[in-house]
Amino acid sequence: MANEKKAVIVGAGLVGALWAVILAKRGYQVDVYERRSDFRQAGYVGGRSINLALSERGWKAVEIAGIREKIAAVAIPMPGRMMHGTDGSLTYQPYGEEGQAIYSVSRGGLNIELVNIADEFDQVRFHFNQSCLGVDLDNSSIRFEDNRTGVQFAIESDLIFGTDGAFSPVRQSLQKLPRFNYSQHYIDYGYKELSIPANADGSHQMHTNGLHIWPRGQFMLIALPNVDGSFTCTLFLPFEGGASFENLKTEEQVMAFFEKYFPDVIPLMPTLVKEFTENPTSALVTVRCNPWHYRHKILLLGDASHAIVPFFGQGMNAGFEDCTILDALMDKFEENWPAIIEEFNANRPEDANAIADLALLNFIEMRDKVADPKFLLWKKIEKHLHEQFPKEFQSVYSMVSFSHVPYSRALSEVARHEELFGKMLEIKDLENNWNGPEVEAVFREWLAGN
Length: 450
Ligand SMILES: Cc1cc2nc3c(=O)[nH]c(=O)nc-3n(C[C@H](O)[C@H](O)[C@H](O)COP(=O)(O)OP(=O)(O)OC[C@H]3O[C@@H](n4cnc5c(N)ncnc54)[C@H](O)[C@@H]3O)c2cc1C
Hints:
Layout: E1 6-10, H1 14-25, E2 29-33, H2 39-42, E3 51-54, H3 56-64, H4 68-73, E4 76-78, E5 80-84, E6 90-94, E7 102-106, H5 107-119, E8 124-127, E9 130-136, E10 141-146, E11 152-156, E12 160-162, H6 169-174, E13 181-196, E14 211-215, E15 220-225, E16 231-238, H7 251-261, H8 272-278, E17 282-290, E18 293-294, E19 298-300, H9 303-306, H10 315-332, H11 337-367, H12 373-388, H13 396-402, H14 407-425, H15 437-448
Parallel strand pairs: 1-2, 1-12, 2-8, 5-14, 12-19
Antiparallel strand pairs: 3-7, 4-7, 5-6, 9-10, 10-11, 13-16, 13-17, 14-15, 15-16, 18-19
This protein binds flavin-adenine dinucleotide (FAD).
């Protein structure tokens, strides 16, 4: 029974490993089944961006897991974005106020740290090399295959968490149910990882504390710093069409493309062509589904229930927030799982859908708008409004990255803020009148009208 404090977690990725820690802290006996071999010994296979941006929602979960200090010691603050023009010019835009930053952390380092912490609890058992094949829903029984022996077996549990990622076999079993809503949507863009190595002395070749972006209208390159002095770069490009992966097949084509759009990175990437040729081109999917549970016994978390495109740097942060919300609901409902799961499923999918939409919107902002003078003016307006009315005005970016405001509220603010922007632009000589009565009047009127 669920009140025996036993649970099974399928998937020891970022969310599954964190969730194991939280359950273990509450005295649960937890069995975690993972398809991969133990990456603490086998080494963490890279890909899917070797580093990730960790922001406020993620930090809260890292704190609950008790590893804030450990992660903070190897996290690189990125207080703003550094834009690279085609002419090599650099423009810096802070993300928030002084002291606020998102942080570049190693995906593998964080995952290993979470598994280590979970493993310190006697009642947590990790079972590596075990691939989930699906769930027999009526018996609450999960089928596995041992990757090394090919032996198949099943285990039963009254409390199962599917944290097995965007292509979750646990979710696939739920998808067969009548009235299970599911959608997956691939954008027309793919991504490829490239790297900028460290200088000989281990320092970074570009400014360390920033998320570097080369916005090019229909596509972009980004780079996040690593502690070893290197940068992990990700090129987001359409699969087909003019400038696209399908048209970058030969060394000449790759070099001509980089010379035209990203000339400043060529000297920084000595193995550009090799990496471009050898690294895979991966797809980007948004997954939405509902309900996230089956009879309050099987619950999907993280990418298994809400995979999103990476342009807001929120996929992991959102998955971590699932865990912190559930943690609070465990207090609220005294670990009565049907009540916890009922409330979680009543509210959380709306927020997951909202961050999925915000992430898609942010792609347009990153690849295109960040270089637009109108966008830069809006950023200035946002900054002044926040300075003048700190309690009443927060940018959407800040709400998402530096607060715990529900994602659905942040999404609903997008249209409201656009309206405010339009009104601010009507003020004469705005840039010399930030503290004038008109700005305040327009702002107050907008506030009152909403
Ligand atoms: C290019 C890119 C950049 C990103 N950047 C960011 C960022 O900056 N910030 C951010 O917050 N998020 C980012 N994300 C999103 C983030 O990677 C995911 O949201 C996060 O990894 C989700 O964690 P998860 O544990 O739910 O799933 P996963 O990390 O996918 O983990 C799933 C686990 O389940 C295991 N598994 C899968 N199938 C089975 C099976 N059949 N049986 C047993 N185990 C199984 C897998 O091996 C894995 O260990 C990015 C994603 C991409 C693609």
